[in-house]
Amino acid sequence: MWRILAAVAAEEPAAPLMVPDSVQKANFAEAVNRLVNLDFSQVAQNLLSETLWVVIKIVIALVIYYIGRWLMRRLVRLIDVAMEHRKVELSLRAFTRSSVRAVFMLLLILIVVSTLGVNVTSLIAVASAATLAIGMALSGTAQNFAGGVMILLMKPYRVGDYISAQGESGTVREIKLFSTVITTNDNQTIYIPNNSIATAIIDNYSTAPERRVDWTVGISYGDDVDVARAAILAMFAADERIFSQPAPVVVVEALADSSVNLKIRAWTANANYWTVFYEYNERFYKELPKAGINFPFPQMDVHVKQD
Q: Of 186, 160, 180, nearest to 171 (Cα)?
């Protein structure tokens, strides 16, 4: 047996199978005959028919796309009007508009692609796999979306509120799918990711209709605190923006190194907060000296001891 196998292995490889020249000539003649007898008019007709059908599908797809966009805008507008009629808050309305627009745009793209003859089932499978991979890479985006949902459910702030969060302060202009848009006092537009703001400490200054204004004013040692208190309360009593209830308060906060510090508190409407704060800074400076109250400079008493 081993001898037979060794003999077979030692044999020279077989020569490649050669096609006879007569067979090659016959095949070439048959190809030439088909080309000569080819009905070019039929080929052109089929090509024209296929091209026309492709053009028709593209036109239909474009028509569906533009009609779908028009219907989507109308639907979003109807939903917005319905929410406005039911007095739904602006933040939820903006979030709903963005969500509905994204969902309908995705459906519209699938319909257009299906109209062009692409297998939507396989496309969805590929898109699902891609979405999974992208979702794993962009997990923060999903967290921002979840943060936006939490904000709408918990409602720590609404569109139009003045807030301070993540080191930024401004008026909430819009709550989007993935971020909150605020406008600062100097008209800067800042986008804060919803995930970070949903888990951060938020100061909402617009929750209550009224707000307390605080000042600290230092007067000289030796000045009459009662006179200063009476002068300040008289200013507040003559100002309709300052609420009588809760009543304004003027108390001695601290006996500092160079001054007696008065803590002044008064309540006003939320919208008047900054106007009242800055205006009375100036009024205290101008009117308290008229009542005999002085503002001391920082000073230090030095005692020299001689041996």
A: 160
